[in-house]
Amino acid sequence: MRVTISRKAHFNAAHRLYRKDWTSEQNDAVFGKCNNPNFHGHNYELTASVTGAIDPETGFVMDAKILADIIKKEVEDAFDHKNLNLDVPEFEHLNPTAENIAVVIWNKLRMHIESEFDLEVVLYETPRNFVSYKGL
């Protein structure tokens, strides 16, 4: 029997979508207003879900407090009120699209979650635009 536990989190961050190796015209054509040289921000909503067997001793798949602490350290403390392009090392050479942000978050969380558990992150960039990532 496999059960999923999920934890929601929130962070605010600015970013700019662009490629340094493209012309301004190419960046504008592909990324539109998200290519604003002065950046723009989002109120991101994150759901991290861990799926696995219930521990017969604790009754937990994973202690929700432990999951909350991991998310706080690895995501909220690292991304909240930051400029993703300038302040977050993972995006120094990676375009901070919602897709790439979700993969970076997954990788950061995965390091702290036992391999017998599945992990999925769902990241809402806006109430209508969201991505999910379950790993390779």
Concise summary:
Its EC number is 4.-.-.-. This protein has 136 residues and is an alpha+beta fold.
Could you explain the architecture of this structure?
Belongs to the PTPS family. QueD subfamily. Its cofactor is Zn(2+). Its EC number is 4.-.-.-. It comes from Flavobacterium plantiphilum. Keywords: Lyase, Metal-binding, Queuosine biosynthesis, Zinc. This protein has 136 residues and is of the alpha+beta class. It contains four helices and five strands; from the N terminus they run βαβαβααββ. The protein has a five-stranded mixed beta sheet. Strand 4 and strand 5 (130-133) form a beta hairpin. The relative contact order is 0.21. The model has no long low-confidence stretch (mean pLDDT 97).
Unreliable stretches (pLDDT < 50, length at least 5) are none
How large is the share of residues in beta strands?
A: 25-35%
Summarize the helix and strand pattern as letters: EHEHEHHEE
What is the radius of gyration computed over CA atoms, rounded to a whole number of angstroms?
A: 17 Å
Structural class label = alpha+beta
Find the count of extended strands (DSSP E, 2+ residues): 5
Number of helices: 4
Q: Helicity range of the residues?
A: 25-40%
Mass-distribution shape:
elongated
Counting copies of identical and different chains, the oligomeric state is: single chain
Q: Major sheet: order of its strands?
A: 3-1-2-4-5
The largest β sheet comes out as: 5 strands, mixed
Distance between the termini: 23 Å
Mean pLDDT: 97
